[in-house]
Design a protein that fits this description.
Elements lengths: L7 H11 L2 H7 L8 H29 L2 E3 L2 E3 L4 H10 L18 H14 L1 H20 L2 H13 L2 E6 L15 E4 L5 E11 L8 E8 L12 E6 L1 E3 L5 E4 L2 E6 L10 E14 L5 H37 L23 H33 L3 H37 L10 H9 L8 H13 L5 H16 L7 H27 L2 H35 L5 H18 L2 H10 L3 H4 L10
Helix pairs in contact: 1-9, 3-5, 5-6, 5-8, 5-9, 6-7, 6-8, 8-9, 8-10, 8-11, 9-10, 9-15, 9-16, 10-11, 10-12, 10-13, 10-15, 12-15, 13-14, 14-15, 15-16, 15-17
Length: 600
């Protein structure tokens, strides 16, 4: 069974052909260095490193896992050496500004590099991946002294970063947070408390780990208004970055997990650890969202990665595995049976994976372009538009792509039949690794409440209108394109319905707030399916134009049109079920008394 290969052909199609990345980089300040030739060369080198170095370690990490002895975590065989190669090649600094030691390439390119690395080996990719959130948080909210000390090491990759939010008694509800921060005479703070589920919280891959930690100052207001943010390094350091002494932060245990065994998910004990306030007192939650939004896009990437891996494995297996004859007659007369790819239900599973892999890639890349614009544009109107789109699309991307990623990983396993349930093919690992993505960085339910409650209803639908207006302009521009009619007509109906349904839901929520919670997940999934319809319509248009121009590789573009048709006819109708569930209201969920759920 062949291992993961970076889908560079589809990445180029999505980025360059559909989304016009070359023009985007020319028109977006600080992105011009990402010329097509530069981007292409970087993608080729990234694919080479990931396929040759990271892919072989994926099963190793799953089998060996991490080990804890005397407070020190050892990563699986080869992980540390791969990280050193990664650092020596300059990958950690690729997409950070030059003024803080980076190479100045746009954040969107980092999204694509993360996709390739995560698909090759998600457990390994989490170690450097979390560092980007720490860097962005310190760069956005840290003092000049903190930036000078920590950013240089994090960007070089000699130090890595984490975020420490969750505690045994609180996960999403951070108002219950108990970790304390006591001020010291030298201006630092004494941090005491326990954090759990800290990915890459302790390891042997870098010389230092910079923890971004939420804690409470003395006499802080109750709830989330009384949370502050601190930098707590594993080792303290002097102003030049020379390590001094081990800080009071230690790994108390490794979590025993369903998947991503190669990544050290730790319970961390902060025992009078020295910490440094970042972003001002009682301002921690706002500052932490810099990290959280980065992590949510990164988690959406995980859904895409597991979709792509499952598709590649199940497609190859379906072409080779022989079972029964095609219903329309033998296709492989030289053998006793036909390859299972001839059977309609196997085609259904493969095309569903393909539709999600390629459609979600477009959704995620488009979202990443908004990051470029929101961080770099000097035009306040353009910047605000990108920020609104990012606010709307981040929860959709995080939840929808991870939910469909889990579905796709399971479909890949299903294609293998009983062989998928055993370890040697790697598809059962893909299912286990994928499952966490709908949970961490905010569950699907939390993302749904954020989308419907905060991003849509609290803005009176303005952020939603920002996106549906884009759809409207696209449909209006292509309304006379007869070849695209099969996509334009249903897309127009759906984006209009999206707005109308949102208005009705808003009125219901004014009378009963439970209506928001009852509708939220169905609303998010509906939103995801409609968003993907837009991107598949754009992909179909691009493919049609390419064929018209007589471009080579015609089969690739015809497959795009065919997959778009499959998506519109087989997948988009799922919105009917979600719409019916939304409009059924909250009574069917809330009327039953909790004590009557089960009788024993």
């Amino acid at each position: 069974m062949a291992d993961y290969k970076a889908p560079l052909r589809d990445i180029r199609f999505s980025l360059m052909d559909v989304l016009g990345y070359a023009d985007h980089c020319v028109t977006t300040p600080n992105c011009a260095e990402a010329s097509p030739d530069i981007v292409d060369a970087i993608l080729e080198e990234s694919a080479k490193f990931c396929e040759q170095v990271l892919v072989p370690l994926n099963a190793v990490g799953d089998i060996e896992g991490c080990t804890l002895a005397h407070g020190q975590v050892s990563t699986p065989t080869g992980f540390k050496e791969a990280y050193q190669q990664y650092v020596e090649a300059g990958w950690p600094s690729m997409t950070h500004p030059k003024k803080i030691g980076g190479q100045g390439l746009p954040p969107s390119l980092g999204t694509i590099l993360s996709e390739i690395a995560g698909s090759a080996n998600w457990s390994w990719a989490m170690y450097p991946g979390l560092s980007h959130g720490a860097m962005n948080t310190i760069n956005s909210h840290g003092s000049d002294q903190q930036k000078q000390l920590y950013l240089s090491k994090l960007i070089a990759g000699t130090w890595t970063g984490t975020m420490c939010l969750t505690e045994p008694q609180c996960g999403t509800d951070l108002s219950l947070l108990r970790t304390k921060a006591e001020p010291l005479e030298d201006g630092s703070y004494c941090i005491s408390g326990n954090k759990i589920f800290i990915s890459a919280g302790e390891h042997d891959m870098a010389e230092n780990i910079v923890h971004i930690v939420l804690a409470r100052l003395p006499n802080a207001p109750e709830g989330t208004k009384g949370i502050s943010l601190f930098i707590v390094p594993k080792f303290t350091a002097d102003a030049e970055g020379n390590l001094l002494q081990r800080n009071g932060v230690n790994c108390g245990a490794l979590e025993h997990k369903m998947g991503i065994h190669g990544n050290a998910t730790c319970a961390l004990n902060f025992d009078d650890a020295k910490g440094y306030l970042i972003g001002g007192a009682n301002n921690g939650l706002r500052c932490m969202f810099t990290f959280m939004n980065n992590a949510r896009i990164g988690t959406a990437l995980q859904g895409l990665a597991h979709t792509e891996v499952g598709l590649q494995k199940s497609l190859e297996y379906s072409r080779e595995r022989l079972a029964m004859r095609a219903l329309t007659g033998a296709k492989n007369t030289r053998a006793a049976a036909d390859p299972i790819i001839v059977h309609p239900d196997v085609r259904r599973m493969l095309l569903t994976q393909k539709a999600f892999a390629e459609g979600n890639r477009l959704l995620l890349y488009f979202t990443s372009l908004q990051v470029d614009i929101s961080e770099n544009s000097v035009d306040e109107t353009i910047k605000k538009e990108a920020q609104d789109l990012l606010a709307l699309l981040t929860p959709i991307a995080k939840a929808f792509i991870t939910e469909t990623g889990c579905e796709s990983a399971n479909l890949a396993l299903q294609c293998f039949g009983g062989h998928g349930y055993i370890r040697e093919w790697g598809v059962e690992q893909n299912v286990r690794d994928a499952r966490i993505a709908t949970l961490y960085e905010g569950t699907t339910g939390i993302q749904a409440l954020d989308l419907l409650g905060r991003k849509v209803l609290m803005t009176q639908g303005e952020t939603l209108k920002r996106f549906t207006k884009i759809m409207h302009k696209f449909c209006q521009a292509e309304c006379d394109n007869k070849k695209l009619k099969e996509f334009i007509k249903p897309l127009s109906q759906h984006y209009k319905e999206w707005g109308e349904m949102t208005t009705r839901l808003g009125f219901k929520a004014m009378r009963n707030r439970d209506e928001v919670g009852a509708a939220s997940v169905d609303y998010l999934m509906y939103s995801g399916y409609v968003a993907l319809a837009y991107f598949w319509a754009r992909a179909a248009l691009t493919a049609q134009n390419s064929i018209k121009e007589g471009i080579e590789d015609k089969a690739f573009y015809e497959a795009k049109i065919h997959t778009a048709r499959f998506y519109f006819e087989r997948i988009l109708p799922r919105t009917r079920m979600h719409l019916a569930a939304i409009e059924s209201g909250s009574d069917n969920l809330m009327a039953l008394d909790e004590k009557d759920f089960i009788f024993i």
